[in-house]
């Protein structure tokens, strides 16, 4: 008889549950109606919802300044794990957004007859080409056409140094910042702290080696390029003789030695190690500065430029920056183009980035006397790197994400002590297996 | 002889204690960590054991409140209870249809002979194996043609069927003696009536188990809702939870608070149902 | 006793709604997977070029695929027997406990079942964190060695086994306990009179009589081992150095977005292998038990 009670309960519960089901209906699609226009923006930056909202707010502001009072923009945050599947299904089924964040190479690559990303019209391209700082100029361009603009100046690796550790080691945080690779190794050694038994209890430098290979690759590639090594050939057709070249082996051996001398892998992810004071130096993008101020107020640190190697590239990640783009399926292509052109004005550069304290991307904003950029902790470090030549970029081929995974896995093995020569030769074979198919 | 048995019993008891320690410790840690601030967590390496386990301020509800009300930075103003309500709707909405489909199919497969019966059974069995990730894209296309994107029904579509439930109920119906069915037929009852008023009441144990398992799986589904829903206020708990664990950020205090909140409703369902599960999964009826 | 043939239509009608819904939701995508596995697929363009079996050939020629396969097999070979042993042991212990204590312990042992795989991955990642987490703090306090758990290629896969044990064990215990509780007490009493030890009773009475439940748990755990994804993805993301990159992680992370045709080929292969293994388990082990 308990069962019949249960059944009644279930029927009741279902009727309650079903009532909003049909009333909720489809919220989307209503934008097609005459008067108010609602634009939708998709971004997978779920780590900073405020940054995602800032784009929607900026779009509304831009529309208002252009004289469209009926335009609103709604940001939808897509969970990062699985966002690509979400984008693919959204775009192919026509239920996608008007604006979205992504890699131009991913979404413009398959362009042609059925593009996902809409290339900027003349006015928008010109506005952005004019506005972007040198180091970000290439980002958003695919096959010579502009498809988007970099969402933030987050592609450059910055060195974070714990100043208390420096003082403890007898170094001056003003003058002893490492600028070359040799200096970096020296400083990292000096900052390494050991217990009586000789175990490292504070890493001088902590590398990223955990998680999926693609993430590991992005943090290591800047070190790799500093030695003049490349992962793939210029035409991106092979890795044989590139990823296992003499320069590449030198780069990996240098890094392996750096880790061996100055890191304790037990301390885990570099970010948490740095914020808990267990790592004195790490490399990460600009956003980490504000994050550390908020989460670890007891840690005193400086942001320094990435050290210069024999080849002095800007320390990028080997792939494009996340760019804001227009969906080819939008119902309002002209309006979107107009808004994108408007957003190139310097004032939006601040509204787009201020809420998350991310670095801006425009020439006009990137000066030390700018009231937003100038007061950021990373300002000077980013300025110093902004004029360097862009590093090689590989994500113009669809196989890149797989290759990045493999490359990152190899970085993690070598960090863990594997033999450089054999690992790199095996890696070259693996990458070419994917490239040649 | 006697001592030997006792010795074995001690070892097996110790193993049991270890097992229960492994089971229970994560729950305790989730609760305790919910009350810890990020600064406290970063300070862990400098602390002794007791202070690594217990929160400094056990009445610090900041994490829980921030997550529950949506003031946590990751949630951007969408309160976590909104996600819980959505999951609640989807779970309850899938429960009854999936039960009816699974129970009728299980009964048909267990108690009747017809052509292709085994093929159909293995078809259902095969269904358990399909990684949801793989069929999602084609299924999504169908669902989007039916205009069910961003709706609760759209989220429920794959949950209306329960291959495991069919499997479970079939195994539970099989041991029930055919003589009940025969007796029902002699009394002139129709097949549906025999099923609904004779067989189903014998299955109360397995049905409760079905409810618990189905609720758990619906509640914890991640990939399908990710594709179907993009409006913030329609998202289920799993999507809300994933905000706290990205590649870049791990705020363990808030993460654990969110995990705790996401578990609570199921925990309540589970504790209510628990005493009915005890009769066992299969064959509460009489064996033949 | 067999039901008569005139009822077979009724039986089919009982199965029909479920079957139709199954065809609607799953069969079309499934067939599509088979078709896609033979094609070069571009989802965004909506193009599909017939390739024959070259997706399969290409996949089989990749070292990366074989690595993932090895990891998956290693994971399955370790996790399935481990789960079976633990499930059987705990279920037997719990079933023999009487009174309140037994009930409470049973409830506790089921608890992890309600936690989502993803949440389990996150929580264990926190507990097993070598410097911030609890596990090494405990081991350190007792003076035991403190492994790197999820953070080293050597121990990462074993650590994911621990997570899998935690999250999956309740399910098997739940099913096996149901079976054990249904075994008639008379049999045990008769065996006791014959002077059987508890171990003998366990292997001679309990195990044979819960054979159907054992097969069910074995089949389902094998399938889950092959498609293990969430708990690994949220705790290690397939790293470090690819040490936990199972086939599912390879499929979803690397192939799914870049080469849908090849991803379909891998799915088809996985389905065939899983289906074959469960068929073998079902037919070889399912003996009718008479008593």
List the helices and strands and how they pair.
The complex is a heterotrimer of chains A (437), B (288) and C (291).
Chain A: H1 2-24, E1 37-43, H2 49-65, E2 71-77, H3 83-93, E3 99-102, H4 104-108, E4 117-118, H5 122-131, E5 141-142, E6 145-146, E7 148-150, E8 158-162, H6 163-168, H7 181-191, E9 193-194, E10 200-202, H8 213-225, H9 246-262, H10 270-275, E11 281-284, H11 287-295, E12 301-304, E13 323-327, H12 333-343, H13 346-353, H14 379-385, H15 400-415, H16 420-435
Chain B: H1 2-34, H2 38-42, H3 49-53, H4 62-69, H5 80-111, H6 117-129, H7 132-145, H8 152-156, H9 163-173, H10 178-186, H11 191-199, H12 204-219, H13 223-228, H14 237-242, H15 252-277
Helix pairs in contact in B: 1-15, 4-15, 5-9, 5-12, 6-9, 9-12, 10-11, 12-15
Chain C: H1 8-36, E1 39-42, E2 47-50, H2 54-60, H3 63-96, H4 99-110, H5 117-127, H6 134-142, H7 156-182, H8 185-193, H9 198-209, H10 211-226, H11 230-235, H12 247-258, H13 260-285
Antiparallel strand pairs in C: 1-2
Helix pairs in contact in C: 1-13, 2-13, 3-7, 3-10, 5-7, 7-10, 10-13, 12-13
Characterise the protein shown here.
- The complex is a heterotrimer of chains A (437), B (288) and C (291).
- Chain A has 16 helices and 13 strands.
- With 437 residues, chain A is of the alpha+beta class.
- Chain A has two domains: 163 residues, Periplasmic binding protein-like II (D-Maltodextrin-Binding Protein, domain 2, 3-Layer(aba) Sandwich); 206 residues, Periplasmic binding protein-like II (D-Maltodextrin-Binding Protein, domain 2).
- In chain A, a hairpin with a 2-residue loop joins strand 5 and strand 6.
- In chain A, helix 5 packs parallel to helix 12.
- The longest helix of chain A is centred in the N-terminal third of the chain and has 23 residues.
- The relative contact order of chain A is 0.16.
- Chain B is mainly alpha-helical.
- In chain B, 69% of the residues lie in helices and 0% in strands.
- Chain B contains 15 helices and no strands.
- Chain C has 291 residues and is mostly helical.
- Chain C has a domain of 184 residues: MetI-like (MetI-like fold).
- Chain C has a two-stranded antiparallel ribbon.
- In chain C, helix 1 packs antiparallel against helix 13.
- Classes of the chains: A alpha+beta (437), B mainly alpha (288), C mainly alpha (291).
- Chains in contact: A-B, A-C, B-C.
- At the B-C interface, helix 1, helix 3, helix 5, helix 6 and helix 7 of B face helix 1, helix 3, helix 4, helix 5 and helix 6 of C.
